[in-house]
Amino acid sequence: MENLDDTAIAHIANYFQALAEPMRLKVLNALRSGDRNVGELAELLGCTTANISKHLSLLAKSGFVARETRGNAVYYRIADPAIFDLCNLVCGQVGKRLAAQAEMAAKLVSAQGKD
Amino acid sequence: MENLDDTAIAHIANYFQALAEPMRLKVLNALRSGDRNVGELAELLGCTTANISKHLSLLAKSGFVARETRGNAVYYRIADPAIFDLCNLVCGQVGKRLAAQAEMAAKLVSAQGKD
DNA sequence: TGACTGTTTAACTAATTAGTTAAACAATGA
DNA sequence: TCATTGTTTAACTAATTAGTTAAACAGTCA
Question: Tens digit of pLDDT for each residue in B83-112?
């Protein structure tokens, strides 16, 4: 990562941007267990098909998911399992932070109890 | 990552959001080689101190960098080297994609040449 | 104290984008 | 063909945010 020009930096930022949205993370998480079509995802995640479709379109454009038409439904699947390595790494980081925050909060509560 | 509630998902999205900005990636990259104060970063990256300061503030709030006052300058450093594992992973992914795109482009050009 | 250097914040503008609604489009089957 | 089911897109609103400028704030030294 040391020597990166602006376009490379922009690509990396785009990559992160695609993952920086709760609903898109939910979509990716839902696809973990296998292919799903748009309607299934919409019902599963409790939102409109239009909304899901837009998120899927962005995820597909960024190469995270792949599109396949079967009958008159459109199925999406994870195109690159590497994102889960990434998400697991981040989950670990976020988990550590939340644990640290919880510990801090506990200390504050206990300190408050003492005075 | 399988079983995540909404707050956990939101934390992960926030984590990615902090990294989804070219200038912030540049700041983190600049801090790779050691501590820097706000003015140094501004000059190095060619933007205003106000702008850098805002990005640093966000990165600090998200726990990516740590703040330290020395004299009347404020030095920032990477707080958690784990982000570089993350960035290296993403760089690898993005690199693969760019290579694939370049190959595709080359094929298109060669196909065009043939007809 | 006051001048200075360095950093942060407030107020603002311009641009992006998640979500909604309704309309368009695609694929199947009668 | 038409009706039905499923998906995508267009147009819009509301909210967020990167960057700018100028003002406020903090730390050092005379």
Answer: 888 888 888 888 888 888 888 888 878 877
- Determine whether the interchain pair A17/B20 forms a contact, defined as Cβ–Cβ distance below 8 Å: yes
CB–CB contact B26 A9 (8 Å): yes
Q: What is the DSSP string of B47-106?
A: S-HHHHHHHHHHHHHTTSEEEEEETTEEEEEES-THHHHHHHHHHHHHHHHHHHHHHHHH
Evaluate if residue A94 carries a pLDDT over 90: no
Q: Per-residue pLDDT averaged across A70-74, rounded?
A: 97
Question: Which of A15, A25, A32 is closest, CB to CB, to B13?
Answer: A25
The nucleotide closest to B60 (CA, C1' atoms): C8
Neighbours of A22 (CB within 10 A): 17
Q: How far apart are CA A32 and CA A50, in angstroms?
A: 21
A9: Cβ–Cβ under 8 A, 6 or more apart, which residues?
B22, B25, B26, B29
Question: pTM for this structure?
Answer: 0.90
Nearest-CA residue of chain B relative to A5?
Answer: B26
Closest to A46 measured CA to CA, from A65, A14, A23, A72 = A23
- pLDDT tens sequence across A18-68: 999 999 999 999 999 999 999 999 999 999 999 999 999 999 999 999 999
* B74 C-beta less than 7 Å away from strand C: yes
- Nearest-CA residue of chain B relative to A88? B1
Q: Measured CA to C1', what is the nucleotide nearest A74? A: D7
What B40-45 contacts at long range (C-beta under 8 Å, 24+ apart), as own/partner pairs, is B41/B76
